[in-house]
Amino acid sequence: MRYRLTFVAGLALGYVLGTRAGRERYEQLKKSARQVSQNPAVRNTAETAAQQGREIAGKALHTVSEKVGDRVPDSVTDRVRSLRERNAGGTGEDDWGTSNT
Fold this sequence. Notes:
This protein is mainly alpha-helical. The chain has helices spanning 2-37, 40-68, 74-88.
């Protein structure tokens, strides 16, 4: 019983001390991450990467559509078309009611 009590006391002490040190370190990391994310060079690079990703995704969609568009069954094509029309309305939810984010 004494070993359990010692173990629990040590666990509690370690938790308290670790939480204090952990919170301070967490705040330091959070501050550093905020400074990096607000750096104009980092923001420009991230926006450039996002724009390039959108362009590449658009080209890939076009290429795939050209190559497999005529091989897709009509039922699948109709389903995709109906989903696009429904999502164009701005609901942002799928068949299960979850958000599409």
